[in-house]
Design brief:
With 73 residues, this protein is of the alpha+beta class. The protein has one helix and three strands, in the order ββαβ.
């Protein structure tokens, strides 16, 4: 039997820059939000932009991660 992946959710991850350290490297902090698996890309981007407007950090990246289960069926 072949293994199968079953998507079960998605996370929206926002990376913010909050300045630089003593070596000149960016200080990055991430915030993760659970979103519906069928959320549209535009909807997630709009949500990220709205959240970023409330943050004191500068938005660096918007990422998504898919959560899934792998089964041998």
């Amino acid at each position: 039997m072949a293994a199968t992946e079953i998507p079960s959710g998605r996370n929206l991850v926002l990376d913010f820059v909050y300045g630089t350290d003593e070596n000149g490297k960016d200080i990055i902090r991430s915030q993760t939000f659970k979103v519906k698996g069928d959320s549209s890309i535009q909807g997630m981007y709009d949500a990220a932009a709205a959240i970023a407007s409330l943050s004191s950090g500068s938005l660096r990246f918007v990422r998504t991660t898919v959560i899934s289960h792998i089964i041998n069926a």
